[in-house]
Amino acid sequence: MTKRSLVFQERVLLRGTQQAWDMILAQACVPEGCFCPKLAAKACRMLALAPTTDSREAVFQCLRDFFVFFGFPMHVPASAGCETALTGALQLFELQLRASGHSALTEVEVTPLLDWLVGLGEVVIAKLCVQPEVCTWAGGKQALAGLLKDSGQSRLAKKLEERPPSRTPKMSQEETQVLPTLALSEAVVVHWVESEVATLESLLFAAAADEGAPPFIALDAEWKPYTKGAPPTNVELVQLAVASQIWLLDMPRLVQTHPAEITSLFKRLVSGECILLGFGLGGDLKRIAESYECLNWLMNTSVQLAEDLNSCPGSLCDSVRERLGHHLEKAQQCSDWSRRPLSAEQLHYAALDAHVLLQLAAATAAADRSNGTATTIAGATGTSLEPRLLAEALKVRSRRDAAPLFAPLGASHVQAALLALGLHPCAPSCSAAIPCKTIALISNNNDNNNNNNTTSPAEADPVEHETSDPRPQVFCAVAVLPSDPNNNNNNNNRPQVFCAVAVLPCSAMLSVSLAAAALGSGSLRLARREELVPLFGHEPGSLGPVGLRSTGVAVLVDVALQQESHLRVGSGGSQDVVLERAALCQALGVTFAPIAAESMGKR
User: Fold this and answer.
1) pLDDT above 70 (res 460)
2) Phi, psi of 86 (to 5 degrees)
3) How many other CB atoms are found less than 10 A from the CB of residue 202?
4) Distance, CA of 576 to CA of 411 (rounded, Å)
5) Who contacts 132 (Cβ-Cβ below 8 Å, separation ≥6)?
6) What separation in angstroms does the CA of 118 have from each of 124, 398, 436?
7) Sign of CA dihedral 164, 167, 170, 173
8) Region Disordered: start and end of each range (predicted)?
9) What angle do CA 301, 307, 311 make, to 5 degrees?
C-alpha cells in the first residue's frame, strides 16, 4: 500500500489495512451498504488501494444492482442520492475493470442504461457511462447526443458534441506530484470562542471592514462523523475567518449559554453586510440549522450575498492543488470534533480549512485577471499568504462576484401554500392516488423575443405570451436573476427567465417539444440542478406543483391524468402529498396537454 509517495512495508499493517479495506469494499459494492461507493472509489485512487477483482459477470452484476436499486428499468423519480451513488458505482466499476483486465461495457449493455438515465434527466451519469474507461462503444457519445435531441434537450446534445472528453477519474500527473503541504501563516491570529459572542461579532465585522471593501468572511463547520443511515450528528465547531484572524466557535457551549447572541451573529452574517464565503456553503448552513433549535430559521433564510467556491467539480483539496499549487492535509477531517479540549492538530486543521477559502477566492480573482492562468497565492515553502497581502489580493473582487444563496423552502412552505389555496391533503395510504413527477422547465426571456413581449425586466407578475398561434396561451412567471445591488445601471441586462412545471405519471417521460408547444414558447429546456432552489424553491426529488418560490408559475398536466381522482405529488420534503386532482387543478389553474413522449423502450 502506498500513501503520498510513502511505502509501508510492515506486514501487520498491511494485513490489518487489507482486512479493513475488504470490509469497506464489501459494503460499498452493494446498494444497501453503509459505505458510499464514491468515497470508496476516491480512496482507491488517492491511496493507491486495490479494488476487489472478480469475474466480469460479477462486476457488471454489481453495477446493474445499483441501477435496479434506483428503479431501473422502470421510469420512476430518481431519489436525492441517485447521482452520488450511481457515480460512485460507475467509478468503482471502472477501477475494478482496470485492476482485473476485463473489457468495458458493450453497446448492448450500455444502451438501456442510457435510455433510462436520459428519461430521468440524469445526464451527468449518462455522460460517465459513455466514457472510454467505462464503455467500449465508439458511438456511445453520439448515441447519447441523439437521445438528448429526441427528448428535446438539443442544447445539451450540442454541448456534448462540441465538448472535449471530460476528465477521467484517473489520477492526473499533477495529483501524483508531491506538493508542499499548506500551513497557516504565523501572522494569522486564531481565537477560541466559548463566551462573549457579542464581542466576537463586533471584532469580526470590524476586522472584515478594515481589510477591504467589500468585506469577506469565510465560514466552515465541523461535526463528528456518522455512518450512512444513522442520525446526523450535531455541528460541533463553526469557523469564521478574515485575512488576519480566525475565530473557532464552540457551538454546543455557545448555544447553551448565549443563544440570543449566536442568533444575532448569524442573522448579521446572512444579511448582506458581508460576502459570506464557503465551500459547499449551503450544506454547512443547513447542517448548522438542523443542529440547533435557535438556528432552525436558517433552513428557510437566504444569504443575501454569498460566494460558494464549490461551483466546479472536485473537492476542496482539488481546488487547493489546482489554484494554490499546494496539498491541503485532511487527516483530521473525520476526527472526533465533540471531544473537549480539541487537539492542537484539530485546531490547526479547523483554522486552515476556513482561512484557505479566502486564499482560493483571491487566487480565483488573480486567475480571472490573467485570463484564466493559474496564479499561485500561497508561498513556495507551504506557508499561506501573509494577512496584509491576502487582504490586498481580495480587494480586486467586487460584489458582482457574489449573489444570493437561496435556501430550500421545504415541506412547511408547501403545507402553508396548500392551506392558502384551500387544499386538504388526503391520507398517504390512498390507493387511488397516481404517483406523479414534477419537472421544472425554463424558457429564457431572449427565446421569447419573437412573441413581441415588452415586459419590463423588473416586472415580476405573470405575463401572457403574445403569438399568432390560435391555441389558448398559458401564463409563465417572470423570474429575474440576481445582479449587483450597488449597480443601478445594469437593470436592463439582468437575465430573465420564464418558469413552468410539468406534472405527468412517473412511468411517462416528458417531451420538451410538446411542452413548449403547449406553453406557446419558442424554446424550452429542463431546469438545471443548480437552478431548482433559486427559481423553484425546492431540491431535486422534492419538487411538486404547489408552494414554488416564483409566483404565477405555469403548471402543465399531462392529459393521461385528466380523469384520475387523486394525484401523489412532491411536497417539498422526503414524503409525497396526496391531493384530489380536481381541486388541485382548479386551484392552480393548470393546463392539460399531451406532454408525455413515447417510452424510450418502444422507439
Assistant:
1) no
2) -70, -35
3) 11
4) 10
5) 104, 165, 168
6) 9, 39, 18
7) positive
8) 449-469
9) 110
Under 8 Å CB-to-CB from 571, ≥6 apart: which residues? 411, 414, 415, 542, 544, 577
Q: Which residues have a Cβ under 8 Å from the Cβ of 57 and sit 6 or more positions away?
A: none
Is residue 325 a contact partner of residue 373, using CB atoms and an 8 Å limit? no
Residue 355: closest CA among 248, 269, 202: 248
Could you tell me which residues are beta bridge partners of residue 532? Answer: none
Amino acid at 526: L
- How far apart CA 259 and CA 288 sit, in angstroms, is 13
CA distance 420 to 232: 33
HSE (CB half, 13 Å, CA atoms) of 516?
17
| Cell numbers linked to 540 | 431535486
Q: What are the structural domains of the chain?
A: 2-174 (no CATH), 189-405 (3.30.420.10), 411-602 (3.90.960.10)
Digit-coded pLDDT (tens) for 289-339: 999 999 999 887 888 888 888 765 678 988 888 888 888 998 899 899 999
Count Cβ atoms below 10 Å from residue 213 Cβ, excluding itself: 12
For residues 247 and 205, what is the distance between their CA atoms, to the nearest angstrom? 12
The helix (H) or strand (E) run that includes residue 583 is: helix 581-588
Residue identified by cell 466514457 is 131
In whole angstroms, give the CA distance from residue 382 to residue 396. 24
Residue 598: pLDDT band with limits 50, 70, 90: low
Check: CB of residue 179 under 8 Å from CB of residue 326: yes
- Residue type, position 510, single letter: L
Q: What is the pTM of this model?
A: 0.57
CA 507 – CA 76 distance, rounded (Å): 6
Q: Judge contact between 193 and 200, C-beta under 8 A.
A: yes
Amino acid 445 reads N
C-alpha cell at position 509: 417521460
Residue 23 and residue 35: Cα distance in Å, rounded?
10
Residue type, 218: A
* Distances in whole angstroms, Cα of residue 92 to Cα of each of 87, 98, 103, 229: 9, 10, 14, 21
Give the per-residue SS3 of 193-204.
ECCCHHHHHHHH
Residue 275 is which amino acid?
Answer: I
Cα 51 to Cα 18, 38, 48, 89: the distances in Å are: 10, 13, 9, 12
Alpha-carbon distance 515 to 66, whole Å?
Answer: 31
Beta bridge partners of 503: 438, 557
Question: Do the strands 189-193 and 245-250 form a parallel or antiparallel pair, or are they unpaired?
Answer: parallel
Q: What does the angle CA 266 – CA 272 – CA 273 come to, to the nearest 5 degrees?
A: 85
**Nearby residues of 329 by Cβ (< 8 Å), 6 or more positions away:** 181, 182, 349
In this structure, what is the dihedral angle of CA atoms 344, 350, 352, 353, given to the nearest 10 degrees? 150
Closest CA to 421 of 308, 554, 291, 589: 589
Adjacent-strand bridge partners of 577: 569
Contact 233, 224 (CB under 8 A): yes
CA angle 406/410/412 to nearest 5° reads 130
Backbone torsions φ then ψ of 496, nearest 5 degrees: -135, 135
Q: Residue 249 in 3-state DSSP?
A: strand
- Beta-carbon contacts of residue 97 (< 8 Å; ≥ 6 apart): 56, 59, 103, 104, 133, 134
